[in-house]
Design brief:
This protein has 85 residues and is an alpha+beta fold. The chain has a single domain, classed as Glutaredoxin (3-Layer(aba) Sandwich). Helix content is 29%, strand content 9%. A two-stranded antiparallel sheet has the order 1-2.
Length: 85
């Protein structure tokens, strides 16, 4: 559900290519250790710096838009998002 919501937001508001990586920590626990994921779900935005995390439910689209610094009144975001994983 959150993956679809994030893909919709990225497609609607970003002109740039983005990367969204989904990791099942039960199948890849080494990634959880490497990324220091201590709770799920965790969303890590790597670019633009600094890296930011959301931990827990991400059902509030308005919160996600604000967290990603998207001003919906401007349409598409004017700055380069780069990699969101």
């Amino acid at each position: 559900m959150i993956v679809a919501r994030l893909n919709t937001i990225f497609q609607q508001y970003f002109d740039q290519v983005y990367e969204l990586q989904v990791v099942d920590i039960n199948k890849a626990p080494e990634v959880a250790i490497e990324k220091q994921i201590i709770a799920t779900p965790t969303f890590i935005k790597n670019f633009p710096p600094p890296p930011l995390r959301i931990i827990g439910e991400m059902n509030d689209q308005q919160f996600l838009l604000e967290w990603l610094a998207i001003d919906v009144s401007l349409g598409r975001r004017g700055t380069d998002l780069g990699d969101a994983s």
